Amino acid sequence: MINIAIDGPAGAGKSTAAKLAAKELGFIYIDTGALYRSIGVAALRKGYDTTDAEKVNSLLPEISLSLKFVDGEQRVILNGEDVSREIRLPEASMAASNVSAIPEVRAFLLDMQKKLARENNCLMDGRDIGTVILPDAELKIFLTASAEIRADRRYKELIEKGTPKDYGELLSEIKQRDYNDSHRAVAPLKPAEDAYMLDSSDMTLEEVVAKIVSLAKEAEK
């Protein structure tokens, strides 16, 4: 199987670019962040503080997660319910950052992610794919962009979805999430030593996708 790992900070465009690149390559796309977001949503629904490891861990035995691929589109199923839209709300993003710092949560999801990679040609994105989940991936990419560019992209995305949010608040959240993700004790956000560094600040989505596909084809040779 050919595995491609794409890591990078929140809002760098990993999910969108990875999804399009996977489609062009004929691979399945696995958005691991969606799994952490789902656990965050489960905790929020209970009214739990998502930084409270004890309470979040108490939920894990009650959580059933699965991924479905419908016409190449990943759908996330939490306890039988499709939560693909709910996990994209801003509060789910910060919740994901919080729960992903909990070792038991990472262990809970590790086997699922590795199994998907063993069984499929896949393009998987997240925060620790190249460093922890798929350290032997044929291609590792670290996709990033400035915090300001990422906040602006998110701002426009939320306006299009009809759920606008203040730009300054979004920028603050992104910087906080960057700090949380890169300073957590378990599997912090960082490039793998052999990752290709790709800064998308001044690139169009089409250019990013084309670069990923080009790198993937080189890796397959």
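The record above closes out task 2.4. Task 2.5 opens with a second protein, given below.
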Amino acid sequence: MAVFFISDLHIGHLNAIKFDKRPFQSLEEENFAIISNWNNAVSADDEVYILGDFAWKNEMALDVIRQLRGKKHLILGNHDQRFSPELEQCFESISNYKVIVVNGQRIVLSHYPIAFWYGQHRYTVLLYGHVHNTDEETIFREFISGLNEKGIPAECYNVGCIMPYMNYTPRTLEEIRNFFRKS
């Protein structure tokens, strides 16, 4: 069993395609890519943590989530406030914030980037989304770099699906770390 992470899928949200300059011409094309990428990476026994903004429209989200492999957990984002009971039942858990341990590594899961998080000074990793690939992300990364330059441990990653290393595919922490080691 592997543990994967992703955020900001915005299923059914046409404006997200424009806002993020996503490489899709339609919601159907985007959904097809997400489902294909997801199911090529994730098996039925794997755990997937979706760090917010899963969907905009319940009907489309229900159709998509039923096609996605793995046991899905949702960390609520600002666009996840009006889910139908039927869609809610597709998740193993739903929470605002979560701390998990994967292969001995403690990880804080939040939709939002956090300047200082639980266990940060004890090498807990923060995974987040929300800011997409925007100036806000750039400013947050500069802040984190500043902490590290001062010797303050701060390891965190944006798992938004639109990030180049995510490429609309759930990723393990190791896959994400490897991308940053290479760059």
